[in-house]
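[RESIDUES AND BACKBONE]
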Amino acid sequence: MIELINLGKQYKQKILFQDVNVIFNEGKKSFIKGINGSGKSVLMKLIVGYSTPTKGMVKVAGKIIGVDQDFIPDAGVFINAPDFIKSWTGAENLLYLANIRKVANEKKIRFLASQLNLEKDLNKKYKHYSLGMKQKLRIIQALMDEPTYLILDEPFDALDKNSRENVLNLLDNYLSENAQRILIFSSHNDMMEDFADHIYELENQTLLQIK
């Protein structure tokens, strides 16, 4: 369970949102929507622990982020993803990262890539990747260690319709494998509404549940 309790964030003199109270439950797909500049990315950073709230707290499995632990544990995160090493192939980049936690292996990486029609491109240098290919590689990175929590900020940017559908199918199957998993994703694309169990909108400095 992920809880946002009286959560508020102010940047300089601007209040982005305040008094946000939401519970994200296991096994659910939650979609956070809002216009550009509404604070979606900031909210996602607060959930992960990349930013500190002005007031309130984020609790994950009963522990306060930034107090009991610095960052959300066991999470696949896609927020302002850093660039990969340009002179390496896609596979080399992912295998290097996989070696840190030692959960994913090359077989797992290639399986995920095949689900996104990226397998034949894994041996290409990253510097030759299109925006859509880079996006898919970041999605694979978020999924490959089989995290309990998936926090994805604008994961569908630069993807065509078929690629978006492949990502949605992959995420749907991923959650169905383990009832404890939680997916929170943001987008400015309303096409994602049918995929979500719950929909929230950042508007008028708060987060409103609309589904």
Helices lie at 40-48, 90-101, 106-115, 131-143, 161-176. The first helix runs from residue 40 to 48. The chain has one domain: 2-209. The mean pLDDT is 93.
